[in-house]
Design a protein that fits this description.
The structure holds 2 protein chains of 2 kinds. Chain A is of the alpha/beta class. Chain A has a domain at about 260-265 and about 275-335. Chain A contains 14 helices and 12 strands. Chain B has an 8-stranded mixed sheet, with helices on both faces. By secondary structure, chain B is of the alpha/beta class. Chain B is about 30% helix and about 25% strand. The chains are: A alpha/beta, B alpha/beta. Chain A: This is ABC transporter ATP-binding protein.
């Protein structure tokens, strides 16, 4: 904190975010009290399965929720300024210049009727008032930076004329044109083949190093988190159930859901053909959440208390927090679950 | 086998010591049509001269990236897609030469499980009807009672509550739907199942359940699997041997552990190096072989070795000559490459 004008703790900080969707079956708390922060040059991983609330969390940050979804309470502080209270025009400015988002499927984020270079240059025309020719030149320059071959030719192509990997690069280029300080990537490589995934992840790392961009990476792939993120948080049923430095979380998971996920994945570097540790049951239905800890029906470590009371996210190890009664009472998950009769 | 009609092929009677499935020179091209007359102006070389054999009781993994032809290969073997050329011997009989009743009888021995449990189940049929359909087609149930009992049994085998037979697919989760798909495949009591990306569409916590189920069923019913997938971690876990496909061709085939430890084809090596391992200590220090560019179009594949346009070891020779799969041969391990990885 050496800058004199700096009155905020983190570049982007989300505090106790609650996002809800009214449905016929009642209000669904898609995001239920989520807090996190991210700083320049670091990559935060958000892990979770479908329905865990990971995508809704970042859509809330970007204020891109589909109505009737809405932020019910909480703060989204960007350089100390609360985005949740901005009007649409102000938010538009932030989205154009400061915080950019890239999505899983680049085909749905590009407009099919405009040439890719025109779309990539759009934020520059709108937010910087650049002349279309200038904006196109910048877009071509950005294509070079993200490793798109024959950038002049690509810039005049339509999105459907590009391959999946190329479109994803073009979308990253679009996100980066205004040199945002925060880049949110929602499953950016899920739709891509592994060799292309490796290219895109390499590119994201390079961007974060070169521009000092703070990156939030949402993924269900723990392997991607292991390679990309310094810190991670695990979400389940709209809540953060565990967070901490990636190394610590992988070496000593302190929530049974994290522990189970790590053991349920087949690993490329393992010769074992033994059955995997499968997590029993199904991810929860948000309209009918279980009592107590939402993971308790699937949890091999479950105790009496877990069924009745919801645990808060509290420190369990030195740099790790978990929302779990079992580990909060001092139990080490590495010893495995108790035998059940 | 209790099959009465004489085998139409010249090959002698199949014995269990021989491969249960033997594919030779299998080729499936799709026409690219253009103009008012819809003339075929070119062909997509989806599968282009594949030789492959699968032994009884084993799981052979077929991996590759999108567009490599692995799904088309799986479907061509079952004749869900008609191949352009080649032979597919199943228990010694060429499936491509069978017709009518003979083909129908063979279909009782082979089944398929599809990738998308949402798209592959008819939403207007109950789960019980879906599972019973193969029984009806092949006349495998003598009466209603038997049919009902068989459906109940099949649902139980795949870990579903038989009481759910009257429900519709939309009432089930993705993992449960995949179980329904597996029950349907098992209905004919097959010996060979093509699993076409059966876990790719599922959540991580559900994938393990289905993987474990497939392993258990294999032991229980002595099944042979052709497991088509893009996820090499899953394939390594499940398969005895793995075949790697690129642009319609098999470029390498080896035992699962052998392929992982000593990949010979540069494409296999880069594929393996690109797969993230869920362990930060290992992951941060891994050497990745990052391929440049995209997969070329299968309409007009490159001359010589098809991988040469993205290969880090490519030389003159690779553009001129097409390396056969036995260019590298170390026992069971074969690779189509002139300059293999050390």
């Amino acid at each position: 904190m050496t800058e004199s004008d700096r009155t905020y703790d983190h570049l982007l900080e989300v505090r106790d975010l609650h996002t809800e969707f009214p449905t016929r079956g009642g209000r669904v708390h898609a995001v239920d009290g989520v807090s996190f922060h991210v700083d320049p040059g670091e990559t935060l991983g958000i892990v979770g399965e479908s329905g865990s609330g990971k995508s809704v969390t970042v859509l809330s940050v970007m204020r891109l929720l589909q109505p009737p979804g809405r932020i019910a309470s909480g703060h989204v502080l960007y350089r100390g300024r609360d985005l949740a209270s901005l009007d649409n025009a102000e938010m538009e400015e932030i989205r154009g210049a400061d915080i950019a988002m890239i999505f899983q499927d680049p085909m749905t984020s590009f407009n099919p009727v405009f040439r890719s270079g025109w779309q990539v240059g759009e934020p520059l025309r709108i937010h910087r008032g650049l002349h279309p020719k200038e904006a196109l030149k910048e877009a071509v320059g950005m294509f070079v930076k993200v490793g798109i071959p024959e950038p002049e030719k690509r810039a005049v192509q339509y999105p459907h004329e590009m391959s999946g990997g190329m479109r994803q690069r073009a979308m990253i280029a679009m996100g980066l044109t205004t040199a945002p300080s925060v880049l949110i990537a929602d499953e950016p490589t899920t739709a891509l083949d592994v060799t292309i995934q490796a290219q895109i992840l390499e590119l994201l790392q390079q961007v974060s190093r070169e521009f000092g961009t703070a990156t939030i990476l949402i993924t269900h792939n723990l392997g991607v988190v292991a390679g990309m993120c310094q810190r991670m948080m695990v979400m389940y049923a709209g809540r953060v159930v565990e967070e901490g430095p990636t190394d610590e979380v992988f070496a000593h998971p302190t929530h049974p859901y994290t522990w189970s996920l790590l053991r349920s994945m087949p690993r490329l570097d393992s010769d074992s053909t033994e059955p995997l540790l499968a997590i029993q049951g199904l991810p929860p239905d948000l309209t009918a959440l279980p009592s107590g800890c939402a993971f308790h029906p699937r949890c091999p470590f479950r105790e009496e208390r877990c069924v009745q009371e919801t645990p808060a996210l509290l420190p369990v190890r030195e740099r790790q927090r978990a929302a779990c009664w079992v580990t909060q009472s001092g139990r080490d998950l590495t010893a495995g679950p108790p035998p059940r009769g | 086998m209790a099959e009465a009609p004489a085998r139409p092929q010249l090959r002698s009677v199949w014995t269990a010591a021989e491969p249960i499935l033997e594919v030779r020179g299998l080729t499936t091209w799709f026409p690219v049509r253009q103009g008012v007359l819809q003339r075929a102006v070119a062909h997509v070389h989806a599968v282009d001269g594949v030789d492959l054999s699968v032994r009884q009781g084993e799981t052979l993994g077929l991996v590759g990236e999108s567009g490599c032809g692995k799904t088309t290969l799986g479907r061509s073997i079952l004749r869900l897609v008609e191949p352009t050329a080649g032979e597919v011997f199943f228990k010694g009989r060429d499936l491509l030469k069978l017709s009518g009743s003979e083909l129908r009888r063979m279909r009782r021995e082979v089944a398929i499980v599809f990738q998308d449990p949402y798209a592959s189940l008819d939403p207007r049929q109950t789960v019980g009807e879906i599972v019973a359909e193969p029984l009806d087609i092949h006349g495998l149930a003598a009466n209603r009672k038997q049919r009902h009992q068989r459906v109940q049994e099949l649902l139980r085998v795949v870990g579903l509550n038989p009481g759910m037979a009257g429900r519709y697919p939309h009432e089930f989760s993705g993992g449960q739907r995949q179980r329904v798909g597996i029950a349907r495949a098992l209905a004919v009591d097959p010996t060979f199942i093509v699993c076409d990306e059966p876990v790719s569409a599922l959540d991580v916590s559900i994938q393990a359940q289905i993987i474990n189920l497939l392993q258990r069923l294999q032991k229980e019913f002595n099944l042979t699997y052709l497991f088509v997938a893009h996820d090499l971690s899953v394939v390594r876990h499940l398969c005895d041997r793995i075949a790697v496909m690129y642009l319609g061709r098999i470029v390498e085939i080896a035992g699962s552990n052998e392929l992982h430890r000593r990949p010979k084809h540069p494409y296999t090596a880069s594929l393996l190096s690109a797969i993230p391992i869920p362990d930060p200590k290992i992951e941060r220090h891994r050497q990745r072989i990052i391929l440049t560019g995209d997969v070329p179009s299968p309409v007009n594949p490159p001359s010589g070795c098809r991988f040469r346009t993205r290969c880090f070891k490519a030389q003159e020779k690779c553009a001129q000559e097409d390396p056969p799969l036995d260019t590298v041969q170390l026992g069971d391990h074969r690779a189509a490459c002139f300059f293999p990885v050390e």
